[in-house]
Amino acid sequence: MKICFIFNPCSGKNRRRPWLVPVIREFIATHGLAAEVIPTERPGHATQLAREALAAGCEQVVAVGGDGTMNEVAQALIGASAALGLVPCGSGNGLALHLGIPTNPRAALRLLADPRAQVVAIDTGTANGHPFCNAMGVGFDAEISRRFNRLARRGFLAYARTGLAAYVRFLPQTVTISNGYASAERLEAFIVAVANSDQYGNYARIAPRARVDDGALDLIAIRPLNLLSTATLVARLFMGSVDRSTRVRRLRGRRFVIERPVPGLLHTDGETHDAEARVEVIVRPHSLRIVVPAHSPVARPGAAGVNPKPENAPGNTNLETPNPKQFRKIEMFKIGFSPRLNFPAISAFGFSFCFGFRTSDFEFSPPSPWKRNACTCAP
């Protein structure tokens, strides 16, 4: 099997991991793979490299980076027979967490050689022609993505600080949403997100119980919030109950139309784009093949693995791919507590921690068209 590893040296954690490329090359040599590691040089380069890998006959193209790198590589693989592999190195890693792909690079590499791993077809979507695999959104989450992508240092705390800086200036907007089945709804929204998987990343579940293989997308519209309701909603976001809030409207469908008063930002898998006032979101069922562990929620019970190499074969030792739940206590803020039980306390700490930053830490940019034409609302 011919494999291409596309490595983004600028992805969140890769900047602090000079050892990662040597580890990948050692993995290639140990397993005798016909593979190469190619670094990206600029935005959009991963898509070009993935297309070249397809033309060269690669059967797997592995994205070594964050959600943006995953998105760029996937753009070239949508509708192709080659499979996407993930070595998640970003700040959120939403799709990887949803699929049960380890966020530890060495464990993610072991998955690629695991004889029990499977290649499954998952859905993708487009938002005004921009492909996404995990989620898209307009409103507050797009504004956070714009600010976050400018940061030199990434991570959850950086995301929290960026979110608070945007929150203190951001105003909601009146939008009209429809899914083609029910009549259109008009409402004031702080966030309008359309999710393929259940989460943004970092276990923040924007669409609990969503699946990437059901041929549908989930729209989540969050109505305007005051500070107290924001803290409560953040806790619900991490406990998997955000859609039970009275401030949240959820719709399911294969196609959505979001209409806002003026053009503005949208994000796809965390990458921002300028977009028209009308945003059309469409699902593409089972359009992307991806390598997942046998315990993934989308794995097929009893299906043959993608690497049918006997487990006692040379170079196939220590291939046990750990369940991500084993790492959960480590991955969630490096503390020894269950995030599901303790996130209310964690979110309260996060808000107080963010409020303690200097005013100079915040970015005060001129209001975007989304903000200038916003409608004020009661808390």
Description:
The protein starts with a strand and ends in a 7-residue tail after the last helix. It contains 11 helices and 16 strands. It has a 6-stranded antiparallel sheet, with helices on one face. Helices cover 28% and strands 26% of the residues. It folds into 2 domains: 169 residues, Probable inorganic polyphosphate/atp-NAD kinase, domain 1 (Rossmann fold, 3-Layer(aba) Sandwich); 192 residues, Sandwich (Tumour Suppressor Smad4). The chain is globular and about 55 Å long. 46% of the residues are buried. Helix 7 crosses helix 10 and helix 8 packs antiparallel against helix 10. The C terminus is likely disordered. By secondary structure, the chain is α+β, with helices and mostly antiparallel strands.
